[in-house]
């Protein structure tokens, strides 16, 4: 495979076109010879060769229109210049006048120009005209068709163009069939279908591209396989960890309930309350670990972003913010035909919103925006808190990340879960700070989904 080159194909095309052009020229020459031989047309110099005979006929005496072949234009006048009979065209009057004054005249046309000759005898003045070039013998064809030479050029050019387009189409289809293999291979790789056999091409350069794509496919498949194995191992480890932690937590909860039944002292009650808060945090931690381990394996039918879905998100945001006496402002509520896994994206939105609520002071605002753009769909959540630290902007979506200022009550998995969900859905999470005159007025999280 790959024995041909693009240069070779181009050379072959040029040679084929040249060969076809030569054939067209031979067909033209054959057509001219055949039409002259059969009397269908006359040679270009035929009227000129016949002119001495016409001249002799005029000198012999009076003539009529029937004395001249039909390919001559004839105007017969008496000695006073009165026209007795004529087959001349009206548009040729000026040339007739010039021929009478100078003895001959010629029309200034690029194709099918005419020669005008002035003859006379004792009683008549005769002006003859004939086309310079080959033409039809039939007067009917000469009347309704252009000059035979012009018509031959038109037909020949049309025939050559038709052949050129057919030859070009043949070679173009051949190259397109090879190029489409690159496009199909690229589509398969883009759709992560990495088990298909990469086709071969008959064109060397295209085959080299396909070989490179095949190597990329194999490397990508190997890399993804390793990544999936690592993810599976991490998921199994997280599942085992959450299972192992639940048992001692259950025992702690049971013992706490027993201690509370013994009517502990106020000091002991405060200690028990702190223990309960710690157990609650551990339960939240385990729940987030379960969510994180289940993201990559979760499958869901995709559906568009409807107005109802956006309304549900807004209602959830308002109910969550109400508990913390926070106001929700909504700028845009645009639906989209983009297909998403609505359950997972809702989970991502809820985590971002929870993060915004946690860091917004009472009485402040959280601004939401749902925008549909030509190439992406964007969900923006902006709070009125202290914003993200420089470290959080860089590592906020990394697993188990918590900055020193954020450690109380936060275990660093909320935005990680959001990041994992967005990555799975060909999207991204962008963290930034909203500023007014270089002063941070809140943190902003943008969820972007590519179309």
Q: Could you give a quick summary of the protein structure above?
A:
By secondary structure, the chain is α+β, with helices and mostly antiparallel strands.
Q: Name the strands of the widest sheet in spatial order.
A: 3-2-6-5-4
Kindly name the structural category: alpha+beta
Uncertain segments are 403-411
| Straight-line N-to-C gap | 38 Å
**DSSP summary, beta strand count:** 14
Radius of gyration: 47 Å
CATH superfamily of the largest domain: Histidine kinase-like ATPase, C-terminal domain
**Beta-strand level of the residues, as a percent range?**
15-25%
Give the mean pLDDT: 85
- Please report the number of helical segments: 11
Pfam families: HATPase_c (PF02518), HisKA (PF00512)
GO cellular component, one term: plasma membrane
Catalytic activity: ATP + protein L-histidine = ADP + protein N-phospho-L-histidine
EC number: 2.7.13.3
Structure in words:
Its main location: membrane. This is histidine kinase. Helix content is 54%, strand content 18%. The protein is elongated, with a radius of gyration of 47 Å. The two termini are 38 Å apart. The chain has eleven helices and 14 strands. A hairpin with a 4-residue loop joins strand 5 and strand 6. The protein has helices at residues 6-37, 46-60, 93-102, 139-144, 148-190, 204-260, 266-294, 307-323, 342-358, 390-395, 414-424; strands at residues 41-42, 73-77, 83-86, 104-106, 114-120, 125-131, 135-136, 303-305, 327-333, 336-340, 365-372, 376-382, 427-436, 439-450. The chain has 451 residues and is α+β, with helices and mostly antiparallel strands. The strands form four sheets. Strands 3-2-6-5-4 form a five-stranded antiparallel beta sheet, with helices on both faces. Strands 9-11-12-14-13 form a five-stranded mixed beta sheet. A two-stranded antiparallel ribbon has the order 1-7. Mean pLDDT is 85; it is low at 403-411. It folds into three domains: 45-132, no CATH class; 216-293; 299-450, 2-Layer Sandwich (Heat Shock Protein 90), CATH 3.30.565.
């Amino acid at each position: 495979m790959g024995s041909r080159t693009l240069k070779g194909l181009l050379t072959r095309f040029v040679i084929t076109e040249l060969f076809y052009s030569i054939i067209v020229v031979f067909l033209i020459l054959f057509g001219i010879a055949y039409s002259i031989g059969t009397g269908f047309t006359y040679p270009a110099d035929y009227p000129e060769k016949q002119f001495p005979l016409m001249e002799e006929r005029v000198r012999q005496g009076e003539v009529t229109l029937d004395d001249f072949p039909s390919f001559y234009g004839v105007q017969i006048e008496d000695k006073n210049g009165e026209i007795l009979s004529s087959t001349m065209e009206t548009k040729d009057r000026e040339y007739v006048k010039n021929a009478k004054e100078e003895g001959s005249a010629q029309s200034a046309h690029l194709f099918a120009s005419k020669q005008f000759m002035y003859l006379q005898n004792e009683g008549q003045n005769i002006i003859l005209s004939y086309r310079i070039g080959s033409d039809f013998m039939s007067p009917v064809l000469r009347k309704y068709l252009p000059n035979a030479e012009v018509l031959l050029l038109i037909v020949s050019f049309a025939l050559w163009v038709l052949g050129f387009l057919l030859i070009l189409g043949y070679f173009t289809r051949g190259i397109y069939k090879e190029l489409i293999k690159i496009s199909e291979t690229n589509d398969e790789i883009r759709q992560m279908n990495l088990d298909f056999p990469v086709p071969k091409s008959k064109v060397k350069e295209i085959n080299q591209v396909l070989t490179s794509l095949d190597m990329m496919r194999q490397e990508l498949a190997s890399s993804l396989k390793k990544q999936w194995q690592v993810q599976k191992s991490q998921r199994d480890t997280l599942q085992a960890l959450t299972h192992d932690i639940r048992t001692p937590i259950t025992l702690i909860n049971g013992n706490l309930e027993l201690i509370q039944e013994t009517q502990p002292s106020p000091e002991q009650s405060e200690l028990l309350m702190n223990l309960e808060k710690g157990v609650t945090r551990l339960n939240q931690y385990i729940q987030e670990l379960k969510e994180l381990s289940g993201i990559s394996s979760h499958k869901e039918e995709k559906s568009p972003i409807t107005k109802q879905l956006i309304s549900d998100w807004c209602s959830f945001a308002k109910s969550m913010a109400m508990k913390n006496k926070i106001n929700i402002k909504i700028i845009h509520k645009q639906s989209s035909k983009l297909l998403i896994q609505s359950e997972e994206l809702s989970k991502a939105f809820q985590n971002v919103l929870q993060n915004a609520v946690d860091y917004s002071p009472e009485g402040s605002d959280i601004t939401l925006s749902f925008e549909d753009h030509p190439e992406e769909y964007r969900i923006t959540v902006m709070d009125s808190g202290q914003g993200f630290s420089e470290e959080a902007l860089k590592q906020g979506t990394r697993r188990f990340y918590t900055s020193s200022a954020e450690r109380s009550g936060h275990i660093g998995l909320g935005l990680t879960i959001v990041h994992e969900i967005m990555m799975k859905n060909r999207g991204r999470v962008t963290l930034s700070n909203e500023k007014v005159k270089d002063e941070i007025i809140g943190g902003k999280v943008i969820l972007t989904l590519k179309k």
